């Protein structure tokens, strides 16, 4: 009896701990390792950094850690430019995703109920193919003699081949295409729950459909807009594959920088410092969002 | 402001039969609403209501309107006039088309055929946001992301009203519905009754020509509903606005409305004052839908002294019914409708020559506090429902279960419904 209740208490105490356990093992521990490497010095050795943790000399180990790599990040403006460029590309992409995703989600939420689950399935369908293959496919579409140019020339809309591949425009196309489900699904979830009579009430009170959209639909869809934007913005800032394949050498993004420090230069400590920087950039919007959300909830429980 | 006419009980239309041409046995009480003295038309009579004035111009004119959703006909060739200042009720069972009719008035649906005019303006193609009509929704449809104040101000803002005027009007509306203290709250922080008031204030804020109310009290509990009914009537009286209410609750309609339109299968069955609907229902559907009623089936035998004699299996002696407006022929099958409160139940046999006597045995007794309901089983197996007001706290020797009883009613307590 007592043992059973103890077991029950143990399990009921453990269940809420599961996400923390997960985060601890797969986020916090790796984060600490990366943080430690970022404070180390590069070395031509295996592993390629110094100092390596050693129980016999803990004080010496901590003494050898320093902020050199972070200084390096501030001194070379390449990293600053890459960061700004990443944030800009991610922000513009998120905006484009909202513009493309909102009508899709709205249309889905307005579709007859029996079609809705099918539409949701269709939105997720691209995931059945490898992400990498789908991005490669865009090369075939966007390259100067690619499908897009052929189609537009056949229609007589352009006379010169389009030079989109290896530009930022191609990166935007790639990000919007690849991330669209992450924008559409949270938007759909909030829009689908919305009470249609609210819109009718707004119309009834003299608000045109366009104004009702901005005064009723958009504010009520805000949780979905924020969730979708975060789901797209955060991975887009650190995106490596899309700018690497579609953006050419001109497109500067922090994710690519990280990659080249890590694999080309084999400078693990500097790459780790870039990773920590990236993390800080991404944590800031999440904290702001949580703060706003908490205040909103406080305002109307 | 206020409305120029007064709500009245149902008065029997004038008819040629001489009063008192039939002497009733003593036990039978008269439930006739006719005043003791013949009613003089002057000097205290209020101006006659617009619906009985052939020259009056209606505010809302529904002309031969049909609304189809695919194959289904929601509203079927319906015509209706609603006058300025009226408290008008659309009453009917669910699916009778009353909500569709209201949504057509609001502009959320357009008629498939026919026209609706409001103050002379044809509303065809006019979107909801350009109609001088506001609606209070059944679900209230309060904007959850706006405070009470902002909800009420919403419609005024759309009109581009200056800010200080909006604040004044919002204050006025909050006072009207007694919610001044809750102006800054959000809908989720309000009780059901408070939300209902916000919805009302928001719909009234623009002072529309017509206020549409879709089941306005449906979500409230009984006590609150009753209070709110009277409040709605007071507000309507104070503002002199035209109210059109959709409801399936006949009690609500009876309490509030100047006139009721009873709808069934997309058509209007009867439009009349609550008193007339209750006391002079046109059809069996209305008699049964509005209030409780006992229906006795029979055949017309003929007319004597302006009173109809109807043969029915339920009574040994043919019934005598005072319903002079009916045009009937001998042998015609009819239904006699008698309200339970207009029947008298007694243990002692009525005197010889008594009319309209049904005999049976008490099957059930329901004590409701204010009323007692007796269900009396007749020899035919029919159950007749008789109610008696519990006018005193104690009754000596009350009628008990299984007792043999006599149920009587006055000739003018019954209505003949031709089938």
UniProtKB/TrEMBL annotation, chain A:
GO cellular component term of the entry, any: plasma membrane
Span of domain ABC transmembrane type-1: 83-289
Membrane topology: Multi-pass membrane protein
InterPro entries membership: MetI-like, MetI-like_sf
Keywords from the UniProt entry: Cell membrane, Membrane, Transmembrane, Transmembrane helix, Transport
The keyword Protein biosynthesis is assigned to this record: no
SUPFAM superfamilies: MetI-like
Location(s) in or outside the cell: Cell membrane
Bilayer-crossing regions: 20-39, 87-106, 118-139, 169-191, 212-237, 268-289
GO biological-process terms attached to the record: transmembrane transport
Family listed: Belongs to the binding-protein-dependent transport system permease family. CysTW subfamily.
Name this protein carries in UniProt: Putrescine transport system permease protein
Organism: Microvirga flocculans
């Amino acid at each position: 009896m007592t043992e059973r209740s103890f077991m029950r208490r143990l399990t009921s105490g453990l269940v809420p701990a599961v996400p923390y356990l997960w985060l601890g093992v797969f986020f916090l521990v790796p984060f600490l390792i990366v943080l430690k490497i970022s404070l180390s010095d590069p070395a031509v050795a295996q592993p390629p950094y110094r100092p390596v943790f050693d129980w016999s000399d803990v004080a010496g180990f901590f003494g050898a850690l320093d902020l050199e790599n972070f200084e390096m990040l501030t001194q070379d403006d390449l990293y600053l430019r890459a960061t700004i460029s990443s944030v800009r590309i991610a922000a513009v992409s998120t905006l484009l995703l909202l513009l493309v995703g909102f009508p899709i989600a709205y249309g889905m939420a307005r579709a007859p109920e029996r079609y809705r689950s099918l539409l949701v399935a269709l939105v997720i369908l691209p995931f059945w193919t490898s992400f990498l293959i789908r991005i490669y496919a865009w090369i075939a579409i966007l390259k100067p003699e690619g499908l897009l140019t052929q189609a537009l020339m056949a229609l007589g809309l352009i006379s010169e081949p389009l030079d989109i591949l290896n530009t930022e425009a191609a990166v935007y196309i790639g990000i919007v295409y690849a991330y669209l489900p992450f924008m559409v699904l949270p938007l759909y979830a909030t829009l689908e729950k919305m009470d249609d009579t609210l819109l009718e009430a707004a119309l009834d009170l003299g608000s045109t459909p366009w104004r009702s959209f901005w005064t009723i639909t958009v504010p009520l869809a805000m949780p979905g807009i924020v969730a979708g934007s975060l789901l797209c913005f955060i991975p887009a800032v650190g995106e490596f594959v899309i700018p690497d394949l579609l953006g050419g050498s001109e497109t500067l993004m922090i994710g690519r920088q990280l990659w080249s420090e890590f694999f080309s230069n084999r400078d693990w400590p500097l790459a780790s410092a870039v990773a920590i920087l990236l993390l800080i950039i991404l944590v800031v919007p999440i904290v702001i969002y949580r703060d706003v959300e908490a205040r909103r909830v406080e305002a109307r429980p | 402001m206020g409305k120029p006419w007064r709500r009245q009980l149902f008065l029997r239309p004038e008819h040629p039969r001489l009063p008192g041409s039939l002497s009733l046995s003593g036990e039978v009480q008269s439930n006739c609403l006719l005043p003791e003295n013949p009613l003089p038309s002057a000097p205290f009579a209020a101006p006659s209501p617009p619906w009985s004035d052939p020259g009056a111009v209606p505010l809302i004119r529904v002309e031969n309107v049909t609304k189809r959703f695919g194959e289904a006909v929601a509203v079927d060739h319906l015509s209706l006039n609603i006058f300025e200042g009226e408290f008008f009720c659309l009453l009917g069972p669910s699916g009778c088309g009353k909500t569709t009719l209201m949504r057509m008035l609001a502009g959320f649906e357009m008629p498939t055929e026919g026209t609706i005019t409001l103050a002379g303006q044809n509303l065809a193609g006019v979107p909801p946001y350009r109609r001088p009509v506001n609606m209070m929704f059944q679900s209230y449809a309060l904007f959850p992301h706006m405070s009470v104040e902002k909800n009420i101000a919403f419609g005024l803002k759309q009109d581009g009203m200056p800010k200080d005027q909006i604040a004044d009007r919002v204050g006025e509306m909050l006072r009207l519905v007694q919610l001044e203290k809750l102006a800054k709250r959000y809908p989720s922080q309000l009780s059901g009754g408070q939300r209902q008031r916000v919805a009302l204030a928001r719909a009234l804020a623009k002072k529309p020509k017509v206020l549409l109310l879709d089941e306005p009290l449906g979500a409230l509990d009984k006590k609150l509903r009753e209070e709110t009914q009277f409040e709605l009537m007071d507000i309507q009286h104070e503002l002199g606005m035209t109210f059109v209410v959709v409801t399936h609750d006949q009690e609500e309609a009876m309490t509030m409305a100047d006139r009721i339109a009873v709808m069934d299968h997309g058509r209007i069955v009867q439009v009349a004052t609550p008193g007339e609907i209750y006391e002079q229902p046109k059809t069996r559907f209305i008699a049964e839908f509005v209030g409780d009623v006992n229906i006795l089936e029979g055949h017309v035998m003929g007319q004597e002294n302006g009173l109809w004699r109807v043969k029915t299996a339920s009574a040994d002696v043919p019934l005598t019914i005072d319903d002079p407006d009916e045009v009937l022929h001998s042998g015609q099958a009819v239904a006699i409708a008698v309200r339970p409160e207009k029947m008298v139940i007694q243990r002692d046999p009525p005197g010889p020559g008594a009319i309209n006597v049904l005999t049976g045995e008490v099957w059930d007794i329901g004590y409701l506090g204010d009323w007692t309901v007796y269900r009396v089983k007749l020899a035919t197996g029919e159950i007749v429902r008789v109610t008696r007001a519990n006018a005193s706290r104690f009754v000596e020797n009350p009628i008990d279960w299984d007792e043999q009883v006599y149920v009587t009613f006055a000739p003018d307590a019954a209505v003949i419904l031709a089938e």
